[in-house]
């Protein structure tokens, strides 16, 4: 079964009004189970819009979105995915642990189970010692890790990420990238990852989907094979070749 | 707070010592009040008056004032609580339905510009039939108290970022659960300043309400009664005013007591409620 199928989707904002904006035109995208796909493109190319369509936060003007074999709206109601945005978006009045528990709470998971799950997720992102802290007491990178733990808490088969590391410094960013890959490998999660960093896209993804603006559409889909996804991988010739390839695809 | 009291006492006595007993008149307008014993009795005179009996052989004034305070406190609390509930419900309704916000908000603002004195006789008419007479005063207090809560809470409920709202949508949470888990907690930093204003408004509403509905037993009535004796016993009316001030402090203290445990880990936002 495929994690995501986007079939002939077009999205027009403010349809029929004078400020009508065609955001996406005839987009087709398939994400296989366990696949890591990055969406990359200049601002305004509709990559975030595409992610929001998959998440059913907005509805397509035409075409269909299928997540885990179901319509996107049903998949959202059944919480088939976890989502993380560029802003960590933690609830400042909840401790780190209770932030991670939030999606479980809304699912009606029992208190003991919630707690255990949250501890496990915080362990995974390396923040077990900060469970009792409030978000205001954490650095930006730590907050983002909490947001990822929160997205993973329901153990969704699909992870949607909208520039989750965009606001972080380079060192933190690279460390979190490795952590994310480890988590995805461990849990077998399929991932759709929006970014505007070519290096990040190549390092993380099995496939980089290149988009262009006005109207937003997919212009290339580049498979990435790296010998390894670690420090050595970042220095492999294949890595630099793929970066060049993606860059050229973005230019054309 | 103690320092504040000391400064206030110093200002009072200082002005009494330095100010013109007949008041400072500039171009025929009295710009500063009279400082004679009739207008501004010494603090110790007021203090002594508290200990003396109200009338010869009667209960001491402090006891009368305290009992009146308790009576008015009950009215204020009922009005404050009712006003808060009404304000919260209105805010939630206005947040939920854009059309309610557009349709209702102007009237909410308008409601506060209607002079209370014009409204009081109408509400007083409900006493004895629709509700016990004291409750009509609570209605007036609630009428003043709901406004800051409604306006402040509406802003608070609208304060969460689009990201937070989208997150709740991604969790398939409906309006009610989004309200409980996200909007309401996010609104607390806006709610407490609003509650402070509402508390003060409820006290004013109760005191003025007692006077304009002619309700007996409360501090508002006491102020009127004592002010009639102001020429012969000027300190007496000030004891009643001290009672009203005490009432305000009690209500403000109650709000702080509620705020303390809830807001410990919260950033404090700058809020202009009006």
What does this structure look like?
The complex is a heterodimer of chains A (252) and B (274). With 252 residues, chain A is of the alpha/beta class. In chain A, 37% of the residues lie in helices and 26% in strands. In chain A, the strands form two sheets. A six-stranded mixed beta sheet of chain A has the order 6-7-8-3-9-10, with helices on both faces. In chain A, a hairpin with a 2-residue loop joins β4 (62-67) and β5 (70-71). In chain A, α3 (96-106) crosses α4 and α3 packs parallel to α5 (140-152). Chain A is globular and about 50 Å long. The two termini of chain A are 33 Å apart. Chain B has ten helices and two strands, in the order αββααααααααα. A two-stranded antiparallel ribbon of chain B has the order 1-2. In chain B, 36% of the residues are buried. Chain B has helices at 2-18, 43-51, 61-96, 98-111, 116-124, 133-157, 162-170, 175-213, 219-228, 234-262, and strands at 24-26, 29-32. With 274 residues, chain B is an all-alpha fold. Helices cover 72% and strands 3% of the residues of chain B. Chains A and B meet through α3 of A and α7 and α8 of B.
The major sheet of chain A is characterized as: 6 strands, mixed
Radius of gyration of chain A: 18 Å
Number of strands of chain B: 2
Structural class of chain A: alpha/beta
Largest sheet of chain B, if any? 2 strands, antiparallel
Query: What is the percentage of strand-forming residues of chain A?
Result: 25-35%
Number of helices in the DSSP assignment of chain A: 8
Let me know the average pLDDT of chain A. Answer: 89
Number of strands of chain A: 10
Measured distance between first and last alpha carbons of chain A:
33 Å
Large-scale geometry of chain B: elongated
InterPro entries (chain A): AAA+_ATPase, ABC_transporter-like_ATP-bd, ABC_transporter-like_CS, ABC_transporter_ATP-bind, P-loop_NTPase
Protein name (chain A): ABC transporter ATP-binding protein
Domain ABC transporter (chain A): 4-238
Pfam families (chain A): ABC_tran
